[in-house]
Design brief:
By secondary structure, this protein is α+β, with helices and mostly antiparallel strands. It is 26% helix and 31% strand. The strands form two sheets. A three-stranded antiparallel β-sheet has the order 1-2-3, with no helix packed on it. A hairpin with a 6-residue loop joins β2 and β3. α1 crosses α2. The radius of gyration is 18 Å and the shape is globular. The two termini are 33 Å apart.
Length: 144
């Protein structure tokens, strides 16, 4: 059983300038990620953006939660793929925000179709990071 509270640490250091990439590192992993402001925000691109990490955090939490639920449900499958599209827009006050994320979820090599659909739905409702954000979440489940 997991013990709460849990703590996860990260570190970022950056030189000045909008065109300057920087490194971001989770303290639990040896390697870091090169970050950059995306071209959509007048940056150089070529590195992970906060928007990339946001959508990746959402979909990777879904995958991790699904893997736990599938194992506990004894759900056999060959592969799981999640393709996501994040929409960045402005709210009513004109502030930019992560408005919507569509998740196309492909579960392949699964014989227990109805059980798989239940586990996918349960995952979408119980993923910790998905439940921690205001972004609208839309799921499209494809089971074969």
């Amino acid at each position: 059983m997991s013990k709460y509270p849990m703590f996860f640490k990260a570190r970022v250091e950056s030189l000045s300038g909008i065109q300057t990439p920087w490194d971001s590192k989770a303290m639990s992993v040896d390697a870091g990620l090169q970050m950059a402001i995306p071209a959509e925000f007048e940056g150089p691109g070529g590195g992970f953006s906060p928007e990339d990490l946001y959508v990746m955090a959402l979909q990777n939490c879904f995958v991790a939660t699904f893997k736990v639920f599938a194992e506990k449900s004894r759900l056999a499958y060959e592969s799981l793929r999640v393709e996501s599209e994040l929409t960045v827009d402005r709210d009513e006050a004109g502030r930019p925000w992560m408005a919507r994320c569509v998740f196309a979820v492909y579960l392949e090599g699964c014989v227990q179709i109805e059980n798989a659909k239940r586990v996918l739905a349960r995952t979408s409702e119980n993923c910790m990071i998905l439940n921690s954000v205001k972004t609208e979440k839309v799921f499209e489940f494809h089971v074969s």
